[in-house]
Amino acid sequence: MTTAISALSTTLDPAPALRLDQCAKGAELRIIELLSQPLFGQQDAGVTLRLKELGFLPGAHLKVIGFGLMGRDPMAIQINGTKFALRRTEAAKVTVEPLNEPGSDQ
Amino acid sequence: MSTPLRFALVGNPNCGKTSLFNRLTGSRAKVANYPGVTVERRIGALSGFSSGAELLDLPGTYSLTVTSPDEQVARDIILGKMGSETLPDALIAVVDATNLRLGLRLVMELKELNRPLILVLNQIDAAHKRGIEINTAGLSQALGVPVVETVAVHNHGADALLQTLKDFAANPRDTDVVRLPAEHGSVENSYHKIESLMSQFVIQPDHSPAWQDKLDAVVMHPVLGLFILFGILLVIFQAVFAWAAPVMEVIEAGTEFLGESVLNILPEGILQDFLVNGLIAGMGGVVVFLPQIVILFFFILILEDSGYLTRAAFLLDRPMRGIGLSGRSFIPLLSSFACAVPGVMATRTIQDPLERMIAIMVAPLMTCSARLPVYALIIAAFIPEQTVLGIFNLQGLTLFALYLAGIVSASVVAWVMRRRQTREEFPLLLELPSYRWPMAYHVMIGLRQRTWIFLRRVGTIILALSIVLWFLATYPAAPEGATHSAIEYSFAGQLGIWMQPLFAPLGFTWEMCIALIPAMAAREVAVSALATVYAVGGESMLGETIGNSWGLPVALAYLAWFVYAPQCIATIAVVRRETNSRAQTAFFTVYLFALAYFAAWATYQIAMLWH
Predict the structure, then answer these.
(1) Using CA atoms, how far apart are residues B306 and B215, in angstroms rounded to an integer?
(2) What CATH number does residue A22 fall under?
(3) Is residue B529 part of a domain?
(4) ipTM score of the complex?
(5) Is B191 within a domain?
(6) What is the CATH number of the domain that holds B180?
(7) How many CA atoms lie within 13 A of A62 on its CB side?
(8) Which pLDDT does position B408 carry in this prediction?
């Protein structure tokens, strides 16, 4: 699992973009883009679509609100006022940048 | 128009469709604050329409591009592709007003279908409380559909919605063309439109209520949260035993009083024997467990309704992945503690087909409420009532251990099944709904429904089986000068004696074998069957009798059997329906019986070493 994710980071990140799964609790972030996730295989496009439908779109603001116990997985995210539980494999699809002024969103 | 109009409620999981459905139809569908409770569509009649009207309650969905079997049901009905189901005449899109963006996105997709649409802004009171103001008229004009505000848990707005439906019935829009939803890529566009609508017609404060976030910080804390979760589970099991006791004693006393009255009033004979040992002992022995079942469901309903269960799913996702399941399986498996039938149906919310199959296979290992009477009887008879470590009741702990045995076994089985398959990743993507104060109205409806289902079983299946059992245990009568007890000569006795060699390695007596047969219809009937076989009424008397005749190793082996055996035809039937596979159903039945036999055998042999 961990090896798969670190392998992913080398293949997906030619430029060092920050991925959602690398962010700390309490971080307020803006989504840059959604990447593909080889671990999802053929259904990756479907996962991307569902993420978008739930509001994970470039430009959207979100906040990391918590992590599970083992391997800090899954993670809890608040976006557009709604909370979601995401696994790190899903979160790794989302590249983000920090929001400098917390609370200035929307 | 001769055919009744059909309206379908469509919306995100947990937006309050089902409670709105209850308000409008007066029906009592199950309502809960968990995404995915309505795993099947429900239908109810609407009153006040000249040509009649029906309302459909569909499973919650985020999108018409489906990812799980329950969403597939919703999509197929919306598009009129569901076998014999006709296309709904109008769609009622239900949007949680506190969660507008997510709801409106589905509305955008539904609008594309070119079907008559009515938009309902539900939970408008909660939205107002959070300072969300919605310009309903403006939204209606911009979207080109009627918009109605409702509070599903009260009658507020339900009348207005009904009036809107009647207006539609008076001038139905003639659109028989269903435009298929556009393929991917329009998500950005629809959110673009939603943002524009939001900025024009909605005033929304930035923050969700602070207490919700503070509560989540504790409840979803990786360590503290797990302590809270296990604390809650332990309290439930303690309560099932401790709180129910006084009420159970009252019911028991009533049953015994009834039996004694009949003994005094009627002359000795067949009728007296039938009433006392057949009917009163048989049904009374099961009714006595009603308080425990009510308490168990009370907790499950409150946890569901409050929104806590998805937090538990969040906490348990990673541990459950270790055994090849996910947080999504948590709710179906927890429901199985009440009854495996709704539990197996709730697996439709699981996206991964293999995970769903595994969840179905292990769901009956979760201790359902029908096992409770059997466990309670044997625990009360064999486990002393004493306090351990100052606070725990030994009987309660034993019950907890039995539940734990089921959970651990389910974990092992799931792990073994997953190991045999190559692993494919599926996303979790679980919405954590806002906390809601559990509504007394919902809990009462849920409890009433459960009590009714239980009493109806007592009045039908258990009544019938009690009569049949009494008959089998009474005839043929013992011959003149018989040396053994009368029951050994009866049909039931002969059947039990015939079965007994098969169960001899487990230490089961022929009386115990008899009880296994009617338990196939309903596990709790094992209790009344034992009461009939031993010809005693009242739970404490039955407990005393088996306490004297079984011995601890046999009792433990019997408990072990009931942990595993698929002693319930209804469960086997629902597995057949949900897997749609004879091979899988056969596997399910055989593996569970094999496990039950082995566990009871091992328990008996090990316990004998100590005995």
Answers:
(1) 12
(2) 2.30.30.90
(3) no
(4) 0.81
(5) yes
(6) 3.40.50.300
(7) 34
(8) 93
Binned at pLDDT 50, 70 and 90, residue B27 comes out as low
Nearest CA to CA, how far is A4 from chain B (Å)? 12
A63-72 per-position pLDDT tens digit: 999 898 777 8
Backbone dihedral region for residue A103 (phi beyond 0: left; psi -120 to 50: alpha; all else: beta): left
Domain for residue A103, yes or no?
no
Mark yes or no for CB contact A53/B62 under 8 Å.
yes
Contact (Cβ atoms closer than 8 angstroms) between residue B314 and residue A74: yes
A-chain CB neighbours of B196 within 8 Å are none
In a domain, A104, yes or no: no
pLDDT tens figures, B301-313: 888 888 898 899 8
Indicate which of A28, A62, A82, A93 best probes the interface with B, i.e. most B CBs within 10 Å of its own CB.
A82
Q: Which two tokens stand for residue B406?
A: 């089921």
Interval B28-66: pLDDT, tens: 555 555 555 555 667 788 887 877 888 888 888 998 888
Q: What is the mean pLDDT of residues B283-289?
A: 74
Buried b (16+ CB within 10 A) or exposed e, B216-230: beebbbeeebbebbe
> What is the C-alpha to C-alpha distance for residues A85 and B315, in angstroms, rounded to an integer?
10
Question: How many structural domains are present in chain A?
Answer: 1
Residue A106 is assigned to a structural domain of this protein: no
Asked if A49 lies within 8 A of B65 by C-beta distance, the reply is yes
B580 is a domain residue: no
Beta carbons of B73 and B58 less than 8 angstroms apart:
yes
> pTM for the full model?
0.79
Rounded Cα distance between B434 and B122, Å, is 14
- DSSP 3-state of B11: strand
DSSP secondary structure code for residue B154 in this structure: S
